[in-house]
Amino acid sequence: MKVLVTGAKGMLGQDLCPVLEDVGMFVIETDIDNLDITDEEMTKEVINKTHPDMVIHCAAYTNVDKAEEDFETAERINIYGTENIAKACGSLDIPMVYISTDYVFDGTKTTPYTPDDNTRPVNKYGLTKLRGEEEVKKYCEKYYIARTSWLYGHHGKNFVETMLSLAQQNKELKVVDDQIGCPTWTVELANGILKLLSQPYGIYHVCGSGSVSWYGFAEEIFKQSGLTVDLKPCTTEDFPRPAKRPRYSVMDNKGLCRNWQAALQDYLQLRDV
Length: 273
Ligand SMILES: NC(=O)c1ccc[n+]([C@@H]2O[C@H](COP(=O)([O-])OP(=O)(O)OC[C@H]3O[C@@H](n4cnc5c(N)ncnc54)[C@H](OP(=O)(O)O)[C@@H]3O)[C@@H](O)[C@H]2O)c1
What we know:
Elements (H helix, E strand, L loop, with lengths): L1 E5 L4 H12 L3 E4 L10 H11 L3 E4 L13 H22 L3 E6 L22 H16 L3 E6 L2 E2 L6 H9 L5 E4 L3 E2 L2 E2 H11 L5 E4 L6 E2 H12 L5 E4 L25 H12 L2
Parallel strand pairs: 1-2, 1-3, 3-4, 4-5, 5-10, 6-9, 7-12
Antiparallel strand pairs: 8-11
Helix pairs in contact: 1-6, 2-3, 3-4, 7-8
The protein binds NADP nicotinamide-adenine-dinucleotide phosphate.
The site of NADP nicotinamide-adenine-dinucleotide phosphate has 27 residues, from α1, α3 and β4.
């Protein structure tokens, strides 16, 4: 099977491509330098020429806070870029996997979100990703929308690395305890995407099983790393950010990924190799 991956140089892309290759897929790795998804002609040409059996669309504008002020760029990449990919896939009947986010939800539920739950993003990044989902549904008959959350991986800036680096400074560390979600290792997500491919087309939640607050996540990172840190819980109000976050963005993953603590353990072990 020939699979074209967009955003292959990103945090997810760099872990996803080897996982696909390991199961015998031929991977065409693309990123902004050889497939700028905001360029409609280029997108059409690359997909027509390479004619993959599937496209996994990971490229995105992912700076959640910056998207509040730079909405135009987020819109161009996440909405119109996704529209270009979806149009090209749809016209050739190529199945498409679109990586979406828990930020399509408003976080007012108290039980895990299912794929059919109502969406209502509370920030601009979430809005652009939801509009991306709509473009996929509009142009493609064969699609998987894989919503994931709280991603961390070896090839990108992420919460685990930030915590480990702050721990070096030996100061009191305050972490938000009133936002609950599902931490997801990029390799776990890559394996979840593989599992998706044997499921019927549709919308899925592909994130770590279980849930935790950012504070609880930090606590587990330090516990598993054997670090003693002066860690204190705080509220969202204590740590204001430009983009609002959903308070509760736990998603029901129907067993597509292992529990988040087991994945974290593997991540930390590999990090030390
Ligand atoms: N990170 C999270 O916590 C999280 C949570 C939920 C969902 N997601 C979704 O998961 C997917 C992967 O996220 P990630 O964390 O791996 O993101 P990432 O590290 O920011 O990777 C995105 C990649 O897309 C590239 N890109 C940007 N604009 C492009 C364009 N016009 N054409 C082609 N490529 C372009 C980026 O290049 P540059 O670096 O040069 O800009 C980067 O290599 C995204 O769809 C994201 O929305 C992420």
